[in-house]
Amino acid sequence: MVCRFFIIVLIILFCGNANSQDIEFSQFYATKNYLNPAFSALSNDQSFTTSYRNQWPSIANAYDSYFVSYDRKIKNKDAGIGVYYLSDIAGAGALKRQSFVFQYAKHLRFGKEIFGSLGVKGGYNLNSIQWDKLTWGDMIDARKGFVYATNQPQGASNESYFDAGAGFIIYSDKYFGGFAMEHINRPSVGLLSLYNESKLPIRYKAHGGAKIPIQTSPNATTVILSPQMIYTKQGNSQQLSVGSYITYDQFSIGLWHRLKDSFIVLAGIDHNSFRFGYSFDLGANKLMVQSGGAHEISLTYNFDFHNKQKTRKFRVISCPLF
């Protein structure tokens, strides 16, 4: 019954006038191309990332999200390109959202120590629903269970739309800050024709952080402290997340707090060209506690061009790895 009720709630959110429908990852910088298109090829010449998120594991068939991205610098150009695929599945596949996104970022230099990036993105999105997997209250017989046909209205099985966004980042060797906008064109995402207005509200993101080296002695390995902040607003919904990372040699640990929602603990390792991260969302409200929080893993492979120049015109951004 919990799962069936959950699916009904999802239908209301997915097809109606929901204020926030976007996936939230907890390893913000492992999926940084999703955070802001201006990140495209800003850290490495080439990068490949895959992430998996299992949200609310205590509820059967809740949310499973998959993210795969690739970005690279454009040789002899002060720019980078990126692509990513995002899939969000709910209710044993009853509801599914897929995004195929292309990004472009122009890398800028404002001074000797100040750099920036301006990015845009556009993508093809597909929302789908399998109506035969859904159950409703009017199908229930008091003694026999779900035996009746439903009178609930059914809409289209698929809805595709184009979505556009943009963002910028400004940074130095110790600080960075950025701003991004998604759903600039306000696409319609409704699957039920009875909803005349089901347009996605524009989503605003502001993020920033610092890199603070801490060295206890001249011969000691430097410890990096990285305080961070991410703020999002979409319609009437808003979310502030604050946290910090500590990096020692190849290892990183982090702690975030999504205000009034959850605490995020994470650990990651950066060895040669590979990065692996794991995070867990600890519930800070009744829903998150009873639903089991969320598990998330990421794997990144970075590689540079073999014939890269010995000096870089643009400094690599010093943002967290996970």
Give an overview in words:
The structure is a single chain. 7% of the residues lie in helices and 50% in strands. With 322 residues, it is mostly beta strands. It has a domain at 2-209: Porin. Strand 15 (262-271) and strand 16 form a beta hairpin. The two termini are 37 Å apart. The relative contact order is 0.18.
Based on Cα principal axes, name the global outline. Answer: globular
Quaternary class: single chain
Please trace the helix and strand order, writing H or E for each element.
HHEEEEEEEEEEEEEEEEHE
Span of the ends, CA to CA? 37 Å
Mean pLDDT: 82
Which strand order spans the largest sheet, edge to edge or round the barrel?
Answer: 1-2-3-4-5-8-9-10-12-13-14-15-16-17
At CATH's second level, what is the architecture of the domain at 2-209?
A: Beta Barrel
Contiguous low-pLDDT stretches (5 residues minimum) are 1-20
Calculate Rg over CA atoms: 21 Å
SSE blueprint and pairings:
Layout: H1 2-15, H2 32-35, E1 46-55, E2 63-73, E3 79-90, E4 95-109, E5 115-129, E6 140-141, E7 145-146, E8 158-171, E9 175-182, E10 203-210, E11 212-214, E12 223-234, E13 237-248, E14 251-258, E15 262-271, E16 274-283, H3 286-291, E17 294-303
Antiparallel strand pairs: 1-2, 1-17, 2-3, 3-4, 4-5, 5-8, 6-7, 8-9, 9-10, 10-12, 11-12, 12-13, 13-14, 14-15, 15-16, 16-17
